[in-house]
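Aim 2 progress update. The chain analyzed this quarter is reproduced below.
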Amino acid sequence: MGKIKVTKVKSAINRTKNQKQTLEALGLRKMGQTVEHEDSPNILGMVNKVKHLVSVEEA
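Predicted structure tokens:
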């Protein structure tokens, strides 16, 4: 499996609790913060839930 870089590009203000918890679980707390994860189905599902708040690129 490859790796992906996930960057938080929009604020979580006025988002549902579920979306905020998903961002926290991904390790994203601040705007512009980037984290690197394995390209697993679990991570891709989490990214899909908050795809409007993050940008994703191959690492």
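DSSP finds two helices and three strands in the chain. The first helix runs from residue 17 to 26. These observations will guide the mutagenesis experiments scheduled for the next reporting period.
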